[in-house]
Every structure is written in structure tokens, then in C-alpha cells.
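The freezer alarm interrupted the setup, so I double-checked each line after restarting. Inputs confirmed:
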Amino acid sequence: MSFALRIRNWFRHRRAIWPPGKGHVQARSAITLDAIFEATIQVLLAEGLNRLTTTRAERAGVSVGAMYQYFPHKQALLYALNERYLEIVAEKVEIACRKHHGAPISQMVDGLVTAYWEAKTERSDVTRALYRSAVELDNDALIEAFAHRVDVATIAMFESASNASYADLPLVNTTLLAVIFGTVRNIFERDLPPSLQDNVREQLAMMCLSYLKAAAFKH
Amino acid sequence: MSFALRIRNWFRHRRAIWPPGKGHVQARSAITLDAIFEATIQVLLAEGLNRLTTTRAERAGVSVGAMYQYFPHKQALLYALNERYLEIVAEKVEIACRKHHGAPISQMVDGLVTAYWEAKTERSDVTRALYRSAVELDNDALIEAFAHRVDVATIAMFESASNASYADLPLVNTTLLAVIFGTVRNIFERDLPPSLQDNVREQLAMMCLSYLKAAAFKH
DNA sequence: ACCTGAACACCGTTCAAGT
DNA sequence: ACCTGAACACCGTTCAAGT
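Predicted 3D structure, all chains:
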């Protein structure tokens, strides 16, 4: 059974034992959950992944027992944190894709790279911390789900392009996303000086565009 | 003080206390070191990063004390393992770069992508395990050293191109490497089906080439 | 000059008791 | 329906003793 599924079952199990309450009790659990996420990010940023401990969580105001009421183990917490974060990034990319529907491919590529880049750069400390917090088991499933969601959005966008079409759009699109996701991660990992980062980002957009032009049947 | 430097000092400190011996005694330490690396990779592949424990190392025939004679802490072991691995990859890329000296850029790009890809794919289980074992502190320095070494090799290669030259080769080259390194990692992370992997690899080479063509002053 | 493994501090996880 | 924190098992690291 997959990791994501095991966690989902664990939640279901908990709800079966304690069916959801109402009003302030319900609110309390949401508050605790937010507090856990908040404390986790704080510790992650200030101390790093291997100093993310129960002791430090307690110092940050979250008791051990409370944590284990929401997550079956530490990995599940990190998994949920990544899921939450990727959700936000995916949504921003989807919005950008919808915005450029029917546009020429040059605008699409630019919009896509910009949206993804900005979603990652907005809180670059969090982005870097989460890149490093990669869950051991089933991290693949998380990445896969994210990649698929973005894939659907960008395919729909490129299909609507006013000035190009493709013999094998799925392949072209998969390549394009692998390149964008991968390159952005690489830049974060290398911690290049900001001005160079911007230049590389610009070159990346140019590179994607020249690829899309080379691979297209032009209209 | 950087992590790499601290480790180097630690080694120096040890040698000061026990200056290097000769013959079979010297050989013994080399054998132990290899045994440690071997055991580490075995456990990493079989059990994963967070089950890489001293207990399991002992079961694999390496005593705790022996490990701490060679590495000041667990992170240092993983650091050394990554360093060793990147050393091999860098050398393969350098060889490929020398081989395509003076060739047309299409052959250069193809040779570069192929060399890097094959170096990573040769033991894809090890590659994936090491991607995940990223050291907390100073992993950047490791990646940076590797990137710089490859950078020097590829710049030298592209400068010798028979059919193109560039206004800003350092930027073009940095972009190209970020794209290749990043995309390959992304493909490993996503664990795409092998046939699709090959297709993406092919598209990647094509993409790099179309970028280099677009960015060049042609001869 | 190097290896062994018991000892210790700390971390992940559980669970009885509380509200 | 949710929270607390002491208790326990296990892991990273040290160090006295061995060869």
C-alpha cells in the first residue's frame, strides 16, 4: 500500500473513532494544525531538517502528543507540508495557463516560466527548505501528482496556441516541464548570485521558446 | 568555517596524532574505508536514508568505532560518498569534452548530454539514493565544486567549436549546464517509464542544440 | 595505528491521564 | 474530541580498553 494511501486511511481511522465536532471544537483542531505547520516551517528554516525534533516543536508551542494526533509519524508531517506547498504552486501555474489561452507560444512559454519561477521565488527560503525535506517514501507520488496536474494545464494551453501545433505534444510538454522544474531546482540548489539567476531565468525562457519553435508545425 | 574545511581539519588532526604508517597497516585502513563506503551504499539501497544506522552498519560488518575513526559524524560520511561519486561523473564529462574538441556544436551537445546521462544512468539505483542523501550543511559547496569543474571543461570545449561562437559564453554555458543537470535529476525523481525517459533525453539534446544555435554567431 | 563495543544523551513514538 | 507529558526503544557519538 502506498504511503499517501496509508496516511489517508489513518485519517479516516481517526475520524471513525472521533467523528468531527462543530463550532469552536472544530476550530480548535484547525488552529492546532496550522500551528503545527507554522512551527514546522519555523524550525525548518531556523535549524534545518535534522534539528527538526519533538523537543524543538514543544519549545515552539506544539506538544508531542498533539502532533501525533494529526500525523502518524514525522515523515507524514513533511509529506503534508510538501503537499500543501505544491498545491499552491500548481494553482498559480494553472491560473497562468488559463490566462494565456489562445495566445502565441512565445507568450505562453514566458507566462509559464514566469509563473513557476515566481511561485518558487516568492518565499525562496521555504522553497529551499522544502526541496531538502524530501520525504523518503512515496515522495515520487507527490511529485508525480504535481507534475500530472501541471501537465494537464499546460497541454490545454499549448493546444490552444494561435501560431503552432505539435506532432507529439505530450512528449514535447513532458520535456518542457522536466526542463523547467529541473532547471529551477538546480538554480536554487546552486545558490547563484541573484543577478546571474535572473539572467539564467531569461535564457531558460529563450531556450524553451527556441525548442518549441523547432518542434512545431508553424501556422 | 565551512563544513568541507572542518572535515579536512579533522583529518589533519587525526594524522597529527597518528602519523601515517606503512605496508599492511596502511593497506588495512584503505580496506576499512572501502568497506565503510561499500556498506553504506548497500544499506542505503536496501533500506533507505533514515534506516542507515550504526546498528545496520555493524550488521554489514563495520563497527561503530571504526566509522568514527574515518568520519567525525554521519553527515561527513554522506558528504564523502557524494564527493566520491561526483568525482567519477565529472571525470567522465571531462573526457567527453576533450573528445569533442574542435567539433561542430551539434556533436558537442550530443556528446555532453550523452556522457552526463550515461554517467548517471550506469548505476541509476546509486544515483537516486545519492540524490536523496543530500547533506544538510554545505551540500551547496559540493555541488558548486562539481558545477565549476564541469563548467571549465565545457567552456573549453565550446570555445573550440568549429561552427559557432558566443557573445556571452559563460552565461550560455551556465544555463546549459543548469538545464542538463536539472532535467536529468527531474527525470530520476519522477521515475518515468524507460522508453519515455529515452525520448525525453533525446528531446533534451535537441532542445539544447536549438538553444545553442539561437544564441550563436554562426560561422 | 587502528579496532571494538559498552555507555550516554537525545530523538521518535506511544499511551494513560486529563479537560 | 482533543491535549499533555512521562516512559520506552532506538540511534548518533564518545571513549576506555584491546591488538
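Quick read of the result. Residues 17-25 of chain A have pLDDT under 50 and may be disordered.
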